[in-house]
Amino acid sequence: MNKIFLIYTGGTIGMKEDPIDGTLKPFDFNGILNEVPELRKFAFIIDSYTFSPLIDSSDVEPGLWKDLASLISQKYDSYDGFVILHGTDTMAYSASALSFMLEGLDKPVIFTGSQLPVGKPRTDGKENLVSAIEIASAKDRDGKALVPEVSICFNSQLLRGNRSTKVNATGFDAFISPNCPPLAVAGINIRYNDAVIRRSTTGELRVHDSLDTRVSILKLHPGITEQVVRDVLLGDGSRAVIIETYGSGNAISKPWFLNLVKEAARRGKILLNVTQCLCGDVDMDIYATGRALKEAGAVSGHDITTEGALAKLFVLMGEQSSNACVKALLETNLRGEISK
Questions:
Q1: Model pTM?
Q2: 3-207 falls under which CATH superfamily?
Q3: Residues taking part in catalysis
Q4: Mean pLDDT to the nearest integer, 8-32
Q5: I want to staple 294 with a disulfide (CB 3.0 to 4.6 A). Which of 106, 194, 246, 284 is the partner?
Q6: C-alpha torsion angle, residues 62, 67, 68, 73 (rounded to 10)
Q7: CA 10, 16, 17, 23: dihedral to nearest 10 degrees?
Q8: 24 near 117, Cβ under 8 Å?
Q9: How far is CA 14 from CA 33, 58, 143, 226, 326, in A?
Q10: Position 37 confidence tier, pLDDT thresholds 50, 70, 90
């Protein structure tokens, strides 16, 4: 029988309405089969682990990612797949982080959650959980996992973790992956997109848990002031800055802005150009404003999400003391995070 390890970090999916006072309280995941009896039909062995205290996704920090990576590493040889229940607000950040921290995966690590608690009549939690567990246990004829990636299972779609972003705060279609097709779609049957799914060539798990979080994000907007840009680009506390630019990587052409970018590059800052657009990618050779940013020292993020860029920088900077090495690896497709 397939063995699945279910990890509950917190979030709406694990809540149940108290029949006395009507408040939402977490239920005991050791009794998950009682809460979601549909899982009994799979005849899987499902073991669970609950973080204590539970973590609201708005309070998620890199320490949780290290704990998750360590827990998966400890249990890796004993289970066929892993399902992580997580609040939706920062799920894309956590999934992106785990995708870079877990190198050589040959088993599924699937994040899921819900917009309504499992105990609610119209909950999306049961469907999300059932689909995630079924996909986490799915194997081919040779006994190999069908989706050996870090992913997000939500609203009948399985999305690559480092390509996902939350776009809906109130609907069941909370996540999209605008620059990468779904890895799988759950309908009457589950259809797997084998052409997109990545598979490890090493088959040996390696955990990268040295994280350097000295990253700032500068989102450009009309009317942004020189002082704001200066504070972010030249701040002493950052080693890298993600610059969220317009369109295909275009930025302000005023001399004061480009001079600050050049000064940041001279000080050794890693500058990563990521588009504010959900779809498309950065090409700093199309327009003069983008070319000026490239000449000033920025590196292209191609079509990476901001969540993916942040996680990639955390891991690369934790592993590499050389900023030149980090810049080279930023333009390299490591976990399917860019289409290059």
A1: 0.94
A2: L-asparaginase, N-terminal domain (3.40.50.1170)
A3: 12
A4: 77
A5: 284
A6: 130
A7: -20
A8: yes
A9: 13, 16, 31, 46, 38
A10: confident
